[in-house]
Automatic annotation (TrEMBL):
One of its GO terms (molecular function) is hydroxymethylpyrimidine kinase activity. This is Hydroxymethylpyrimidine/phosphomethylpyrimidine kinase. The keyword NADP does not apply. InterPro entries: HMP/HMP-P_kinase_dom (IPR004399), PM/HMP-P_kinase-1 (IPR013749), Ribokinase-like (IPR029056). Pfam families: Phos_pyr_kin (PF08543). Keywords: Kinase, Thiamine biosynthesis, Transferase. Residues 17-259 form the Pyridoxamine kinase/Phosphomethylpyrimidine kinase domain. Gene3D superfamilies: 3.40.1190.20. The keyword Kinase applies. Pathway: Cofactor biosynthesis; thiamine diphosphate biosynthesis; 4-amino-2-methyl-5-diphosphomethylpyrimidine from 5-amino-1-(5-phospho-D-ribosyl)imidazole: step 3/3. It catalyses: 4-amino-5-hydroxymethyl-2-methylpyrimidine + ATP = 4-amino-2-methyl-5-(phosphooxymethyl)pyrimidine + ADP + H(+); 4-amino-2-methyl-5-(phosphooxymethyl)pyrimidine + ATP = 4-amino-2-methyl-5-(diphosphooxymethyl)pyrimidine + ADP. Its EC number is 2.7.1.49, 2.7.4.7.
Amino acid sequence: MSAPAAPPRVLTVAGSDSGGGAGIQADLKTMLALGVHGMSVITAVTAQNSLGVQGAWELPVEAVRAQYRSVVDDVGVQAVKTGMLASAELVEAVAELLAGAGVPVVVDPVGVSKHGDPLLAASALDSVRTKLLPVATVATPNLDETAQLTGVRVESEGQLRDAATAVLAHGPRWVLIKGGHLPGDAVDLLTDGVEEHWLRAPRYDNRHTHGTGCTLASAIAAQLAKGHSVPEAVAAAKRYVTGAIAAGFALGAGIGPVDHGWDLAPGRRGGV
């Protein structure tokens, strides 16, 4: 009896969250939930829980390169997602690797944690702008990350278009500006500078949203690996993360994670 065919393969290049709510751990859970095979290149290790980040240690560039080549040269990938890259050296090394990947790349330009802890050195911002964003198929900054990268501060839905234009100027094919920090419905703008797609979802009264950004970017990468177009992939990812937020649960003494398995088994919390 022959072995089943392998599912689409997605690689996450990101940091480890010891609490399991964000980072590599959230990425792999998301990929499993969406039916793709997740693989990882760990760029940094954090000591992290529901209260915040207590410590972070980046890996050497040669360790990151070796992990990437080990996976890509043997297994191959259909999409890549990047998260915490920590330093200019790591940003530039990863951007160089991805420039020759030949597959969709989702860049989540992680700057700070949910608790406000810095996860990217200030000296790395220019490398993100000039090296990483130009290789992105889709960039997924939140409003704080958009301000960090472009200086454009968004305080209303009407300003999302200006923010998107500013990010697109750095070279990604598409940008998804996440407006989740604005009042009202959770509204995001996806655009390539010509097409515009406005994505709306109800805002749930649930503070347990740790890992939202990682989860959304990984879900987009998973859908791209399945062959969906960027607008289709982002719309499907938005539906998935909305359900995960609705089902987010308390864990520890602080902010709990979204529920990556909300749609997998009977009796799970939440749903959309």
